[in-house]
Amino acid sequence: MECYYTSDSCDSDNREQKTLDLSHRLLDGEAITSELDIIINDKNCAANFETILLYNNRIKVLELSSLRYLYLGGNNIVNIPKDIWKLSSLRILSIAGNKITDVPESVGALKTLQALVLSDNQIEQLPASIANLHQLRSLLIHKNKLKTLPTQIIKLKCLTELSLRDNPLVVRFVSDMAIQPPSLLELAGRTIKLHEVPVRPGDVPLTVIKYLQSANCCVNPKCKGVFFDNHVEHIKFVDFCGRYRIPLLQYLCSSKCITGSWENRETERNPPTHMMQKVLLG
């Protein structure tokens, strides 16, 4: 075990921070938990660590007490535990270089979080609860499988660093439409919803009623259309707090919606090149 002290210049109270370094030891979660238990019970090494470094071990599952800084990069972690919200004092959560595919909604409950590092994983989407991280300044999510970002992310007014490089959404700067001819069922369902044709139980099979209830509204505010299984995928750049714009994936009912005047107002604006590089390329 290596214990050392380091000062955290970002802290307003300027207190000396106590750091426990267990990195590069090829320990699995059970071994590290056992070692932490020994440290906690050691009266000569007080259990008031605020930072624990666990880089490059063999961790798959790990449960920790409340911390302010947690670094778990370069392990074999597959899932972020749903009870991560219990780390209520966490300011930095770094889990880069793992095998994570999903980020739980509970991450949004980390109200004091200032930096979230999820780069170099296999994440396909972020939860909408990310918008609840009002103190978040740095969001590093490069080298993942993200095709879109939650629209709620524009609410992160404190965010100054957003790294997106090496994600599918960065490659798809322009409109990417996947248009397939709609089925007769799709066309009939759209007509019923658009014209508000009354459909009562007994008139049609229950499966048809459930199908009609699954209708999705077109994101074009000037369109009253709906879609079911057939839709148009479209990448749109959205203003990010007036500073720069980020690409978001939208689902439209028709390719005609893309060329509407509501979309033209957005695409006519060209963000500064250096700002776009800062967001997309980190």
Detailed description of the structure:
The protein has 6 helices and 12 strands. It has 282 residues and is of the alpha/beta class. The strands form 3 sheets. Strands 1-2-3-4-5-6-7-8 form an 8-stranded mixed β-sheet. The chain is elongated and about 65 Å long.
Largest sheet: 8 strands, mixed
Shape: elongated
Poorly predicted parts:
1-16, 173-178, 264-269, 273-278
In DSSP terms, counting alpha (H) and pi (I) runs of 4 or more, how many helices?
A: 6
Percent of residues in helices: 10-25%
Distance between the termini: 35 Å
Q: Write down the overall mean pLDDT.
A: 75
Rg, alpha carbons: 24 Å
Total E-strand runs:
12
Class inferred from helices and paired strands: alpha/beta
In percent terms, what proportion of residues is strand?
15-25%
Order of helices and strands: EEHEEEEEEHHHEEEEHH
- Spatial arrangement of strands, main beta sheet: 1-2-3-4-5-6-7-8
Pfam families: LRR_14 (PF23598)
Domain Disease resistance R13L4/SHOC-2-like LRR: 82-166
Keywords: Leucine-rich repeat, Repeat
Organism: Pieris brassicae
Record the SSE blueprint.
Elements: E1 2-7, E2 16-21, H1 29-41, E3 51-53, E4 69-71, E5 92-94, E6 115-117, E7 138-140, E8 161-163, H2 168-171, H3 184-194, H4 206-213, E9 216-217, E10 226-227, E11 232-240, E12 244-252, H5 261-267, H6 273-281
Parallel strand pairs: 2-3, 3-4, 4-5, 5-6, 6-7, 7-8
Antiparallel strand pairs: 1-2, 9-10, 11-12
Features:
alpha/beta; two-stranded antiparallel sheet; elongated; 12 strands
